[in-house]
Amino acid sequence: MKIYADNAATTKMSPAAVQVMIRCMEEDYGNPSSLYTIGQKAKETLELAREDVAAVINASPREIYFTSGGSEADNQALLTAAQIGKKKGKMHIISSAFEHHAILHTLQRLEKDGFEVTLLDVHEDGLVRPEELEAAIREDTCLVTIMYANNEIGTIQPIAEIGAICRAHQVLFHTDAVQAVGHLPIDVEAENIDMLSASGHKFHGPKGAGFLYVKKGIPVTNLIEGGAQERGKRAGTENVPAIAAMTEALKEAVANLEANTKRQLEIRNRLIEGILEIPHTALNGDAVKRLPGNANFCFEGIEGESLLLLLDDKGISASSGSACTSGSLDPSHVLLAIGRVHDVAHGSLRLSMDAATTDEEVEYLIQSVKEVVEYLRGFSPIWRDLMNGKKEFIL
């Protein structure tokens, strides 16, 4: 049996998105900046996509800038806010300790430029506390950037509350919503979001296409200089086929959001119930305030890389954390941020499911994880020390 259980890393393109992409490559191949008919046809497709994307998050089409994905959008949002803050003498930024590295590494860059960064605690449940955020805001705070839903443990942050606090204090609020768009209902106006990042390949669109929402009136800082594309804020010929395909996938995801969520919750809850039957195993993050398709575990006495390789032998594609850090030997910064010790954080597993997953596949997943964990613990010196009482169990 082959099971793909790493949808948080990337999703398979939907058939409808594939068809739209092929059609655009065959018919709307003109440069949308050109004045002749085939170019204007591509321009029309581009602007229709902008309107559709904006409608999904309750924004204006002129507030949507197409990008290559979430990392570019995150970078542009943070540098935009930093530039605005610097001009006003406000050089303080608030974020959380378990953001995606597209945020954390950009913040490190800004620290080198003289900005001060406060990283909020996310506690054992993986949630930012609004009252702690409000207490951290200062007179010189220019930006709060908190992810909508965590890419590893799936916890959903209190975005509307955070947005209200930021609006009350007149501080710009950005959210990395890469894991949330297409999976959760989002309203940038109701939630007081000033900037939002998204990526198409997280909701069955193509890789290489994403978008940045920037509220009207915020002057956008360019990352890429060159032509006048994206109203002069993102140079380079727009990837119309990928943008159109991403938009089709997003519309499809939103149209089926209620049914998909219901099915994913059934899968997720069964996975959590079955896998927590394994002794000395813990669910990472809040059990309820999490993405419907996300289940993330720690297993004491084993190492995550071996777990993934053995699951792959059983036909299961899974991960131990963010795909962007899969080459690192260090434990997940997300798991460390919620208080997992190094030994436990090394033995993690993220299963991110799609609504198309069958009940049979769910049971195979549970059984396979149980078998692999038992096998690995069978020759683990750490597990032997735990069982012999030389070390104390943590989970």
Describe the structure.
- With 395 residues, the chain is α/β, with parallel strands linked by helices.
- The chain contains 14 helices and twelve strands.
- It has helices spanning 15-27, 37-56, 70-87, 101-112, 130-136, 159-168, 229-232, 240-255, 257-275, 304-313, 333-337, 342-345, 359-378, 381-387, and strands at 3-4, 64-67, 92-96, 116-120, 141-145, 172-176, 195-199, 210-214, 281-283, 294-299, 316-317, 348-352.
- The strands form three sheets. A seven-stranded mixed β-sheet has the order 2-8-7-6-5-3-4, sandwiched between helices. Strands 9-10-12 form a three-stranded antiparallel β-sheet.
- Strand 3, helix 4 and strand 4 form a beta-alpha-beta unit.
- Helix 1 runs antiparallel to helix 8 (240-255) and helix 10 packs across helix 13 (359-378).
- The protein is globular.
What's the overall average pLDDT, rounded?
95
- Enumerate the strands of the largest sheet in spatial order, edge to edge or round the barrel: 2-8-7-6-5-3-4
CATH topology of the largest domain: Aspartate Aminotransferase, domain 2
How many strands, which pairing sense, and closed or not: the largest β-sheet? 7 strands, mixed
In the residues, how many domains can be counted?
A: 2
Tell me the distance between the termini: 31 Å
Q: Percent of residues in beta strands?
A: 5-15%
> What level of helicity do the residues show?
40-55%
Please give the radius of gyration in angstroms: 22 Å
CATH C-level class of the largest domain is Alpha Beta
**How many helix segments?**
14
* H/E topology pattern: EHHEHEHEHEHEEEHHHEEHEHHEHH
- The CATH superfamily of the largest domain is known as Type I PLP-dependent aspartate aminotransferase-like (Major domain)
- Classify the secondary structure makeup into a structural class: alpha/beta
Overall 3D shape? globular
State the total count of DSSP E strands: 12
- Low-pLDDT residue intervals, each spanning 5 or more residues: none
What's the CATH architecture of the largest domain?
Answer: 3-Layer(aba) Sandwich
